[in-house]
Amino acid sequence: MNNNNAIVLNKQAFLIYGEPASKANSRRAVTFKGKPRFIKSSKALNYEKMFKQQIAFLPGSSRSSSSTPRRKQEVLFKHDVVVEIYIYYASRRPDLDESLILDLLQGVAYENDRQVKEKHIYWGLDKENPRSEIFVWEKEIVDNIPAKS
């Protein structure tokens, strides 16, 4: 198989306002029925809520039968995908961490974040307008197409 013969079949773009929480730093310990549990921080929970609200209002979106907003797409990507994300933070402090975004794209762009086989993640600074610009596409490798010389 020649990897030069890749065709982008479908590409989705999302613009999500707000600063994502770092998944690595977004857990907090609580006691539930006498047992310690780790749950998402309030920053991570707030970002998740904002993300879902914004996805619900993108063109072509609808609310599923549950209360969870979902972007309606004819078919979620079922094969391996490539993800490109530009994360613009409000300050220089946060680490670049796309993992919460990848989790939130499950059921929106693809079925499971295990389908992400290639990532291109970029850090940016925009104090006035923190946001994430997200691009997702599925590649199909096509054999029998002559490579360009």
Characterization of the model:
There is one protein chain. The protein is mainly β. 19% of the residues are buried. The strands form three sheets. Strands 1-8-6-7 form a four-stranded mixed beta sheet, covered by helices on one side. A two-stranded antiparallel ribbon has the order 2-3. About 9% of the residues have low confidence. The chain has one domain: 2-Layer Sandwich (60s Ribosomal Protein L30, Chain: A), CATH 3.30.1330. 14% of the residues lie in helices and 40% in strands. It contains two helices and eight strands; from the N terminus they run E-E-E-H-E-E-E-H-E-E. Strand 6, helix 2 and strand 7 form a beta-alpha-beta unit.
Largest beta-sheet characterization: 4 strands, mixed
How much helical structure, as a percent, in the residues?
Answer: 10-25%
Question: How does the helix and strand content classify structurally?
Answer: mainly beta
Oligomeric state, counting identical vs distinct chains = single chain
Give the amount of beta strand, in percent.
35-45%
Q: In the CATH classification, which architecture applies? A: 2-Layer Sandwich
Radius of gyration, CA atoms, in whole angstroms: 18 Å
The shape is globular
C-alpha end-to-end distance:
17 Å
Structure summary, number of beta strands = 8
| Mean model confidence by pLDDT | 80
CATH class assignment: Alpha Beta
Low-pLDDT stretches are 61-74
How many domains? 1
CATH fold description: 60s Ribosomal Protein L30, Chain: A
